[in-house]
């Protein structure tokens, strides 16, 4: 007759404390989102006056008012405007930044090092420092109150951060692939489009995700260039709720905030796997 001895592993209190601390940090980070969702369902008199997280009763009319739009502009028009600007910015950054990154990472030309250093230095330049010169240029071209000032700069590789990210990724690719393509008669452009670009997909998707989120949430630049309510985005529509009805529209404003948040969450969830892969392999590890 054999007896089995049960060995109890000692409790690792350090690991338990780490997990508890992570859960507390998660609750702190998720609280603003929970507050936003709860406030979007609060009656108008509880949005500002009540400190309770949960509403006394669910006010679904806030979402009905938000879906009606603002300034006689439907929410679908606002959503389409936001998607147009964000989609154009994503397309412009992916195309222009990948071309610029290929030049810095693979091609040999005079003053490549100083030009790359100058490009990296522009990351430290505040956006507001170039906003006034850009506005003057677009105003003289007659492009103010159009979407071109929000989309056209993206096609000129003005986002140095994404150029740097893609450069770091391309430098990790083996040069033997391009040398083999060159032996087969491929020039620089064909090597870029058929060899390098498909392998750079994780970095390109990372660029697309960050560009989409930053452009979608952009308020100040859109406020400067867009005047016509028909051209407003969801971000500008949130401000219009407060201007139109003051405190009585806070409930619909938070409801519209939840609606405006959904495309970002869905876009991120769809491509988060590529985001982690791109950040891990582009020299931006934490």
UniProtKB/TrEMBL annotation:
CDD domains: TM_PBP2. The chain crosses the membrane at residues 16-38, 83-104, 116-138, 150-170, 191-216, 249-271. It holds the Pfam family BPD_transp_1. InterPro entries: MetI-like, MetI-like_sf. It is found in: Cell membrane. Residues 79-271 form the ABC transmembrane type-1 domain. Keywords: Cell membrane, Membrane, Transmembrane, Transmembrane helix, Transport. It is a multi-pass membrane protein. Gene3D superfamilies: MetI-like (1.10.3720.10). Belongs to the binding-protein-dependent transport system permease family. This is Carbohydrate ABC transporter permease. It comes from Streptomyces tibetensis.
